[in-house]
């Protein structure tokens, strides 16, 4: 008799039920995860920058070709930096740099629209694009 069958026969009836329940729960949990497609191509920083630039052209009503080219280059630099696998602090610093560069290219009205736009991510419909300030002045020590 196989080892598993001997093991199961040696246990009491309640222990059989617990074991079956655990095995079913593990099987259900394994099937609950959606399969990750392995052949899905990763987008290059250039492709992401083109898509992001097109989205900003559409949302902000950009018409100046110099501003469009500058925004593409900013998006490209930002995407290349993001692909390097940085720490959380470096990512935040990169985001501030990105926002400052965008602010220098667009008009104040366009920048306000950029900062107040809805995110593309449906999981966070109420999120805004303005990150919290990383400088220590924004943090106040807890009074003791």
Please tell me about this protein's structure.
This protein has six helices and no strands. The protein has a domain at 45-117. Helices cover 62% and strands 0% of the residues. By secondary structure, it is mainly alpha-helical. Helix 3 crosses helix 4 (65-82) and helix 4 (65-82) runs antiparallel to helix 5. The longest helix has 20 residues, at 13-32.
Main sheet properties = none
The whole-number mean of residue pLDDT values reads: 75
Approximately how much beta-strand content do the residues carry?
A: under 5%
Shape descriptor reads elongated
SSE order, as H and E?
HHHHHH
Classification by helices and strands? mainly alpha
Overall helicity: 55-70%
- The radius of gyration is 26 Å
How far is the N terminus from the C terminus?
A: 68 Å
Low-confidence stretches: none
Please tag this protein with its features.
6 helices; 0% strand; 144 residues
Task: Give a brief outline of the structure.
Helix content is 62%, strand content 0%.
Write the layout of secondary structure elements.
Layout: H1 3-10, H2 13-32, H3 45-60, H4 65-82, H5 88-105, H6 108-116
């Amino acid at each position: 008799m196989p080892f598993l069958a001997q093991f199961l026969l040696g246990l009491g009836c309640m222990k059989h039920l617990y074991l079956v329940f655990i095995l079913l729960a593990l099987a259900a949990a394994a099937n609950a995860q959606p399969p990750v497609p392995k052949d899905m191509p990763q987008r290059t920083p250039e492709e992401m920058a083109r898509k992001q630039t097109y989205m900003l052209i559409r949302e902000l009503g950009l018409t100046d070709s110099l501003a469009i080219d500058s925004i593409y280059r900013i998006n490209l630099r930002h995407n290349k930096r993001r692909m390097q696998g940085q720490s959380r602090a470096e990512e935040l610093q990169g985001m501030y740099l990105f926002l400052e560069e965008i602010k220098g290219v667009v008009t104040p009205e366009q920048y306000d629209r950029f900062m107040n736009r809805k995110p593309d991510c449906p999981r966070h419909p109420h999120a805004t694009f303005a990150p919290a300030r990383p400088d220590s002045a924004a943090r106040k020590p807890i009074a003791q």
